[in-house]
């Protein structure tokens, strides 16, 4: 146990004594550890008897509180034919709670001044509510209720399926980038559950039943599959008592064993060409990349920053500024529990081809495999990384989100700062090793997008 | 709100909100002039000028400047709107002086290298081409153009291929000399900085700029365009549509401005508002369904936004028109009013929960010429809104007769059905998605 709680420990134990004396059947809380979160904040971790992880980060800088609930269930936990269920379920969590009536949850929270939302990705589903501090009790009551008393009815499920189908049309079917990213992951992964999109295939969305949703809820929405993060201006004793009373009525569940299928090594390049309703050619490339918890993840992330991060990066300089072949250049190293992709997106300018972009991309990637990047480039990339981290921590919600994300994926709520330190320790040798290890053309997938002429133009051409 | 403008006569206007929670400083250097000062036929000139300044600061090359900013752990850019131009910087505290030096080079010593302007022009053309992939952006572009007609708010801040082609280096240099004046600047600092240092940094930058007269008030209120008009932005093979319906909206100086804001909150301002309930929750037609009432120095637009699949576009428009009619004829209820007021009063905490947001409100007040106490007294004034005032404001300000309806979709698939559900349609047009609004 890393203990930075120091002199606070007796006070914490005293508070827990009072809370546990009145706790419901499963609501006994145990203090686990305190970990520093940046220079001035601390995260206190508690564990409830039913397995709920509670992470508290006091921050009195504004009279607001953010409550995040991160469930360790995402699209990776779905099955073929039932893709998109985790995301559909995220929508359904805003519908009806037993004894409260449909729509009560959102209406009541808005009346309290709350800002609430949710999101689903490959490894997790999270729900966030930011609230004026006086309203914290209401949030804890409602959040606990929907973890165990959600009502699923046919009309709401049918309506929400249609909403999700419309979301899919918006983000994927009528959006070139969304459609191509989906295709890239489906090409790069053959066995691992990362191969299907979080939003799900349209035919699967259309096919869900209320029974599917109920089964999913019973399987994954349990206190022992969740982390509750509270950040902001609150009184610790009050929060401990409310969490114990509201969440302590729930028993732990037996969680399903994940049928994890490791992705077999890719041994040759995969290339797909598609036509889309778009104005210019696009090139999307995915290299298999390490998991977020891998020692190499900070190195490949920093390398990505050197190559693609901002206007001073190598690829922006070559493709946008010097050669004027591209209008857009960006990349992203997936922050996932299992190995994901180093995803590169390049948009060609009118009159230029995806192949021209690929030639330059290959030249630049070869350079970072042949010779180390410069110390100046590393320092710049590291500074951009630091700025990005700090910028995300301005609000109570930003802090809760950062804590929750790293808790859900790595089980280490302050890992954002560990990554910052790891990034500062990186050497040119680390980046050279990461480049050689991961930028292997045989382990990449490419999607080339050609503009599809409108039907009228195509007919005229014929 | 604890930030205060420095009051001494003749001293630079400097807004400061201090928070040492993070080792981060943000600053804005704002001008009260925006793209409505673009010369006639040269929309996009102000934005292009700011980017040219940014890329040639101190006579250096763009990639050198970009690398310097990255090395500082900073970011620096400009945001142009019709009424304002705001240079914005954020930097790790240890590097604040360095980023301010670059800001001074951008504002006071742009190199204006000719080759960089041509490169920038080509880049902007490419961005305009890419923007045609964004259906939501297309709907906003056409809606704005049709709502504001001949008013400068109709122009694109980015410009068009033809307008950008016309711009000469001399046009941008004249614009720079006209608007980037010491007297035209407002400084706003937030984060890990105290007032004395902020004032010193502002004074140091201001004294490097030329003084002189700045442009006065630049436009009148836009005029109502009578009747219902439909613009179908035709794009092939759309499974979905992007719909904007609206007309003129509110002005912060209106006596019923906040009353209308409350009514709009009930109608389409939140996730449980009428629009989301009817369009999304009950029918599942659109992932989002909202109405908005932005503010500016002159009257801005009121709009309803939905994005149903192609088959649902016509019934969705029909529903929205009925909802607008019901809002005007029946108003909001007492219960809805009470709910909206609670929401607005309580959620105001999130307009003030960071130093950058707090100073941002002060900056908005200064830039948009908001009435005295606009934000300081916001909560009390929301509490004072009556049911009668809210419903009267809807009837007075939101027209159901004078509406612009913009739909991005495949015209051959949806055009007839959409036209059929809009009673009293004065005109309709089909425009190609890649055409320039005219």
Short descriptors:
heterodimer; A: 462 residues; alpha+beta; Cytochrome Bc1 Complex, Chain A, domain 1; 2 domains; seven-stranded mixed β-sheet; five-stranded mixed β-sheet; 44% helix; globular; B: 438 residues; alpha/beta; six-stranded mixed β-sheet; 11 strands; disordered N terminus
Would you kindly provide a written description of the structure presented here, covering whatever features stand out?
The complex is a heterodimer of chains A (462) and B (438). Chain A contains 17 helices and 15 strands. Chain A has helices at residues 9-21, 85-92, 104-111, 136-148, 154-173, 176-188, 202-207, 210-220, 236-247, 297-308, 314-322, 354-370, 375-391, 396-410, 415-425, 428-438, 455-461; strands at residues 29-37, 41-48, 53-58, 64-71, 96-97, 101-102, 115-120, 125-132, 150-151, 226-232, 270-276, 282-288, 326-333, 341-348, 444-451. The model of chain A has no long low-confidence stretch (mean pLDDT 95). Chain B has 438 residues and is of the alpha/beta class. Chain B folds into 2 domains: 14-206, Cytochrome Bc1 Complex, Chain A, domain 1, CATH 3.30.830.10; 228-432, Cytochrome Bc1 Complex, Chain A, domain 1 (2-Layer Sandwich). Helix content of chain B is 44%, strand content 17%. Chain B has helices spanning 45-55, 62-72, 96-108, 114-131, 135-148, 161-166, 169-179, 195-206, 257-269, 274-282, 313-330, 334-347, 355-368, 378-383, 387-397, 411-420, and strands at residues 14-18, 24-31, 74-80, 85-92, 185-191, 228-234, 242-248, 289-292, 301-306, 403-409, 425-432. In chain B, strand 8 and strand 9 form a beta hairpin. The longest helix of chain B has 18 residues, at 114-131. The two termini of chain B are 44 Å apart. The interface between A and B is large, with 72 and 64 residues.
Spell out the blueprint of helices and strands.
The complex is a heterodimer of chains A (462) and B (438).
Chain A: H1 9-21, E1 29-37, E2 41-48, E3 53-58, E4 64-71, H2 85-92, E5 96-97, E6 101-102, H3 104-111, E7 115-120, E8 125-132, H4 136-148, E9 150-151, H5 154-173, H6 176-188, H7 202-207, H8 210-220, E10 226-232, H9 236-247, E11 270-276, E12 282-288, H10 297-308, H11 314-322, E13 326-333, E14 341-348, H12 354-370, H13 375-391, H14 396-410, H15 415-425, H16 428-438, E15 444-451, H17 455-461
Parallel strand pairs in A: 3-10, 11-15
Antiparallel strand pairs in A: 1-2, 2-3, 4-8, 4-10, 5-6, 5-9, 7-8, 12-14, 12-15, 13-14
Helix pairs in contact in A: 1-9, 2-5, 2-8, 4-9, 10-13, 10-16, 11-12, 12-16, 13-15
Chain B: E1 14-18, E2 24-31, H1 45-55, H2 62-72, E3 74-80, E4 85-92, H3 96-108, H4 114-131, H5 135-148, H6 161-166, H7 169-179, E5 185-191, H8 195-206, E6 228-234, E7 242-248, H9 257-269, H10 274-282, E8 289-292, E9 301-306, H11 313-330, H12 334-347, H13 355-368, H14 378-383, H15 387-397, E10 403-409, H16 411-420, E11 425-432
Parallel strand pairs in B: 1-5, 6-10, 6-11
Antiparallel strand pairs in B: 2-4, 2-5, 3-4, 7-9, 7-10, 8-9
């Amino acid at each position: 146990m890393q203990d930075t709680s120091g002199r606070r420990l007796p006070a914490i134990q005293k508070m827990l004594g009072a809370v546990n004396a009145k706790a419901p059947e499963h609501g006994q809380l145990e203090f686990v550890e305190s970990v520093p979160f940046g220079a001035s904040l601390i995260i206190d971790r508690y564990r409830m008897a039913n397995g709920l992880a509670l992470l508290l980060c006091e921050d009195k800088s504004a009279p607001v509180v953010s409550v995040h609930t991160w469930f360790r269930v995402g699209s990776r936990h779905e099955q073929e034919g039932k893709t998109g269920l985790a995301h559909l379920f995220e929508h359904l969590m805003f519908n009806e709670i037993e004894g409260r009536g449909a729509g009560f949850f959102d209406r009541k929270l808005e009346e309290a001044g709350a800002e609430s939302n949710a999101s689903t990705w490959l490894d997790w589903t999270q729900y966030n509510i930011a609230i004026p501090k006086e309203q914290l009790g209401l949030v804890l009551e409602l959040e606990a209720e929907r973890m165990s008393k959600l009502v699923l009815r046919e009309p709401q499920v049918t309506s929400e399926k249609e909403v999700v189908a419309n979301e899919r049309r918006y983000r994927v079917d009528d959006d070139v980038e969304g459609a191509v990213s989906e295709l890239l992951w489906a090409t790069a992964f053959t066995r691992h559950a990362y191969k299907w999109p979080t939003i799900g295939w349209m035919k699967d969305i259309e096919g869900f039943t209320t029974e599917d949703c109920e089964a999913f809820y019973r399987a994954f929405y349990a206190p022992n599959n969740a982390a509750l993060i509270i950040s902001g201006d609150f009184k610790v004793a009050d929060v401990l008592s409310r969490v114990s009373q509201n969440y302590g009525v729930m028993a732990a569940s037996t969680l399903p064993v994940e049928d994890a299928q490791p992705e077999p090594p890719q041994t040759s390049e995969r290339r797909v060409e598609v036509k889309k309703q778009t104005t210019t050619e696009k090139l999307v490339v995915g290299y298999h990349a390490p998991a977020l918890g891998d020692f190499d993840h900070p190195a490949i992330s920093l390398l990505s920053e050197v190559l693609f991060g901002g206007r001073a990066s190598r690829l922006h300089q070559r493709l946008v500024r010097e050669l004027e072949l591209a209008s857009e250049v960006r990349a992203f190293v997936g922050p996932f529990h299992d190995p994901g992709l180093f995803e590169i997106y390049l948009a060609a300018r009118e009159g230029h081809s995806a192949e021209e972009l690929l030639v330059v991309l290959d030249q630049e990637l070869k350079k970072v495999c042949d010779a180390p990047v410069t110390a100046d480039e590393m320092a710049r990339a590291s500074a951009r990384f630091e700025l990005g981290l700090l910028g995300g921590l301005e609000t109570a919600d930003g802090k809760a989100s950062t804590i929750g994300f790293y808790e859900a994926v790595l089980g280490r709520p302050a890992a954002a700062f560990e990554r910052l330190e790891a990034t500062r320790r990186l050497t040119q040798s680390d980046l050279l090793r990461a480049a050689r290890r991961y930028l292997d053309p045989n382990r990449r997938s490419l999607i080339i997008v050609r503009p599809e002429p409108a039907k009228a133009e195509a007919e005229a051409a014929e | 709100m604890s930030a205060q403008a420095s009051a001494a006569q003749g001293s630079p206007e400097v807004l400061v909100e201090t928070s040492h929670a993070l080792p981060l400083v943000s600053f804005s250097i704002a001008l009260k002039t925006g793209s409505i000062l673009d010369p006639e036929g040269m929309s996009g000139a102000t934005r292009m000028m700011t980017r040219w300044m940014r890329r040639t600061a101190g006579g250096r090359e763009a990639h050198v400047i970009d690398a310097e900013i990255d090395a500082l752990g900073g970011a620096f850019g400009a945001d142009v709107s019709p009424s304002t131009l705001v240079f914005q910087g954020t930097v790790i505290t240890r590097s604040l002086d360095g980023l301010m030096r670059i800001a001074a080079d951008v504002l006071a010593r742009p190199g204006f290298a000719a080759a960089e302007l041509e490169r920038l022009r080509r880049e902007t053309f490419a961005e305009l081409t890419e923007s045609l992939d964004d259906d939501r952006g297309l709907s906003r572009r056409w809606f704005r153009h049709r709502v504001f007609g001949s008013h400068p708010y109709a122009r694109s801040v980015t410009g068009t291929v033809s307008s950008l082609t016309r711009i000469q280096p001399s046009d941008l240099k004249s614009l720079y000399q006209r608007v980037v004046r010491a007297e035209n600047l407002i400084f706003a600092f937030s984060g890990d900085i105290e007032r004395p240092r902020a004032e010193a940094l502002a004074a140091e930058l201001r004294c490097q700029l030329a003084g002189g007269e700045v442009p006065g008030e630049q436009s009148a209120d836009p005029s109502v365009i009578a009747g219902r008009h439909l613009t179908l932005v035709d794009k092939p093979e759309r499974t979905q549509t992007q719909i904007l319906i609206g007309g003129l909206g509110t002005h912060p100086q209106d006596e019923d401005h906040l009353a209308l804001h409350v009514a709009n909150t009930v109608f389409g301002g939140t996730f449980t508002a009428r629009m989301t309930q009817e369009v999304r929750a009950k029918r599942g037609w659109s992932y989002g369904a909202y109405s908005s009432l932005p503010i500016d120095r002159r009257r801005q637009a009121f709009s309803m936004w939905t994005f149903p699949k192609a088959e649902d576009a016509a019934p969705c428009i029909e529903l929205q028109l009925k909802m607008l009619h019901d809002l005007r004829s029946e108003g909001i209820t007492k219960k809805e009013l009470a709910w909206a007021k609670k929401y607005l009063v309580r959620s105001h905490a999130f307009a003030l929960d960071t130093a950058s947001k707090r100073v941002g409100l002060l900056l908005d007040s200064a830039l948009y010429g908001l009435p005295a106490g606009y934000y300081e007294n916001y909560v009390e004034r929301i509490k004072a809104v009556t049911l009668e005032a809210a419903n009267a404001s809807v009837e007075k300000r939101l027209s159901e007769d004078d509406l612009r309806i913009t739909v991005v979709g495949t015209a051959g698939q949806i055009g007839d059905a959409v036209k059929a559900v809009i009673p009293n349609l004065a005109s309709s047009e089909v425009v190609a998605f890649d055409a320039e609004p005219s």
